[in-house]
Structures are given as structure tokens and as C-alpha cells.
Amino acid sequence: MLFRSAANVCGSLRLLDLHILERAIPAISTIVKAGAPGCRELVYAINVTADVLLTNDFVTQLDRQLEQHGLDPQLVCLEITEQAALRNPAQAISTMKRLRKLGVKLAMDDFGTGTTSLGYLRDLPLDYVKIDKSYVWKLLSEATSRRIIQFVVELGKEIGFKTVAEGVEDEELLCELQRLGVSIAQGYLVTRPKPFSAGQDAWIFAESGQSRNISGLLAAPG
Q1: What is the pTM assigned to this prediction?
Q2: Of the residues 154, 166, 172, 207, which is catalytic?
Q3: What's the pLDDT tens digit per position in 187-196?
Q4: Which residues of the chain form beta strands (DSSP E)?
Q5: CA 1 to chain centre
Q6: Residue 106 in 3-state DSSP?
Q7: What span, in angstroms and rounded, lies between the C-alpha atoms of 73 and 89?
Q8: What is the DSSP letter of 119?
Q9: pLDDT tens digits, 90-148
């Protein structure tokens, strides 16, 4: 996050994002081809900012990299912020539809931190909506946060996206999220962030089966 902030100030965020993408695709391909147990049951998430999403040739570049490294697009999920979707909604939706046609999965990251209306979610071709931890942490104490989470869950069931709760750190919260029908838990209770290297990928697959999640783990190397 610190590197992204610095790159944003310097005006080189797009270059940083493309560099991360160029590193992530072969890394994911390496662990998938290694054939560790469960590797093809996971979705590998990569964060993408508006600077890359709204680039005219982004879909073409991504398609080229996936083909070059022999990686199934359905194993990749691009996490897009609300700000990226709102900067140019028409172009963002067009690009997202092309990505979905390519086979890539899409997630809205940190939902609730921007100005996206709940109704706007209906227009976005999303596979996942990640509910920001500011709502998750207040689930047990604030009725408004609870209602928002409930609405997002019901909307997801209606139009076909899964919900991911960010910042899950205790069992009581996990159990309540499960009762509400949230699909996936992400947070310290599930697993803490760990560095990725080609020789340390086994933890991803071990913890995806052993961790205390709701119905799966949206995992990302790095």
C-alpha cells in the first residue's frame, strides 16, 4: 500500500500496477503447474487500480500474459476499487464486461468506502463484492451496518455475486456473518498475510482447507 501511495504521488501508479501484474501472472502459473493439492480450486486475486483498468489496451495485455504463461483466466480475480469503477463508469463497465468475456473473475474491493450506491452494484458484472471491514467490525453493535451487510448479501443472491467479509478477527463475528449468509471470510482469524515465493506456496493450499472460513478462501499470492 505504501508503494502504491508513493507511485500515485509520482504519477507512476499505472507502471507499478502493470509491473505487479507481470509478476503475479507467472507466479500464479508456477504454483498451478506445480500441481499442489487444491491449487485449481482457488481463485487468485490481484488488485487493479483505475489507472490500469481504464487503459485502452489493458484487456489485450492481460490476455497476452495469460496465454503466454498458460494460465486459465478463470483462476484469476481482479479486485477493483469503487473509485476505479466510478472514475469513468461507462468505460469501467465496458472493460469489465470484456474481462468477464475473457474468463477473468471480478471483485469490488472495500465496498462501502466510496460513493457507490447499492443499486449501482446491479450494473457491474461482478463475481465478488468485498464488504469493507468498517461495516464488518460494527456488525454486532450497529443496526445500520447489519442492514447494509444483509442487503448486499441478498442482492448478491439475486444477481449472482458472492460476498466477502473483510477484517474477520474473532469467532463470534464469523458465526454471525455465517448466519447472515456471507459467502467468504477474510481476515486474521482465517490467516494472516504472508510473503509469497516460489518455494513457499504450500501454505496457501494447506490453509485453504484447514482455516476457519465460511465457504472458501479468496486467496492471492503475495
Answers
A1: 0.83
A2: 166
A3: 888 877 766 6
A4: 43-48, 76-81, 105-111, 128-131, 162-165, 184-185, 218-219
A5: 15
A6: strand
A7: 24
A8: G
A9: 888 999 999 999 999 999 998 887 665 666 788 889 999 999 999 999 999 999 999 99
Using the structure block, give the residue that is written with the C-alpha cell 480450486. 41
Which has more pLDDT, 60 or 198?
A: 60
**Has 169 been annotated as catalytic?**
no
Length of the chain: 222
The C-alpha atoms of residue 25 and residue 76 are separated, in whole angstroms, by 9
Q: Which residue has the cell 453493535?
A: 141
Name which of 35-44, 86-95, 115-124, 213-222 the model is least confident about.
213-222
DSSP 142-202: -HHHHHHHHHHHHHHHHHT-EEEE----SHHHHHHHHHHT--EE-STTT-------TT--H
